[in-house]
């Protein structure tokens, strides 16, 4: 039996279980037992990937503009501005 070591993309916990299939992409969704959030392993759209959001924040702190971030990370400009508008998660 093949095992994959998955970590929660939100809290990096290893207590994840299979949850359901994503309604649009049909990909396996996983549920984190630690923080209760769901995630997909290997996002279809880069904009949904939490690591991209973290990169957007980090690049903006280092002086990159919206258009720079759009070009480097290959996400839509709207994704970049939506990330800034969202409230920080606690
Ligand atoms: Zn988690």
UniProtKB/TrEMBL annotation:
Q: Which PANTHER family match?
A: INSERTION ELEMENT IS1 1 PROTEIN INSA-RELATED (PTHR47923:SF1)
The alphabetized list of GO BP terms reads: DNA transposition
Q: One short Pfam family name for this protein?
A: HTH_Tnp_IS1
* Domain of life from the UniProt record: Bacteria
Name of this chain's protein: Insertion element IS1 protein InsA helix-turn-helix domain-containing protein
All copies of the Insertion element IS1 protein InsA helix-turn-helix domain together span: 43-85
